[in-house]
Amino acid sequence: MSSKKILMITGDFTEDYETMVPFQTLLAVGHTVHAVCPEKKAGDTVATCIHDFEGDQTYTEKRGHNFALNATFDDIDPADYDALVIPGGRAPEYLRLNARVLEMVRHFFDTNKPVAAVCHGAQILTAAGVLKGREVSAYPACKPEVEMAGAAYCEIPIDSAVTDGNLVSAPAWPAHPAWMQQFMALLSK
Known about the structure:
The chain has 189 residues and is of the alpha/beta class. Helices cover 29% and strands 25% of the residues. The strands form three sheets. It has a six-stranded mixed β-sheet, sandwiched between helices. Helix 3 (99-110) packs across helix 4. The model has no long low-confidence stretch (mean pLDDT 96).
């Protein structure tokens, strides 16, 4: 597989595992990954959170690590990238309000470049209006948004992922092996 240049859009209270694991995995196999956040520059950090499944009706949340950004959001031209990664957590609920984030996301769909979204990352995709007619997985609480966006919500095991065209999506961090495997298969095409 040839090396690709991948954009990761993240923000404060992105899910720790859903940010760090794909970032490090993609670097480990030789890709360049630029992690960015609106209103922040290379060297700044975002606070992450850890969502866990402990038998409650929804996930629990604990403070995670500080994740260092390695590129400046305002300098990004999505045309310079081969693929996009959107982690979940709470960050998508406010990132979806940023017009530039939505513009970047639309670029990857308009040009049919690979996109990987996990958990609440689907909130950004619904706000960008790119899900109509697709099969998509996400954290179960995102199901109504996914369906209102015109997509078919895929109820799959928490450790599974689904690929529809250029989009790989998964319900949460336990799906990392399947999610990254399917995303890397898209990257190799």
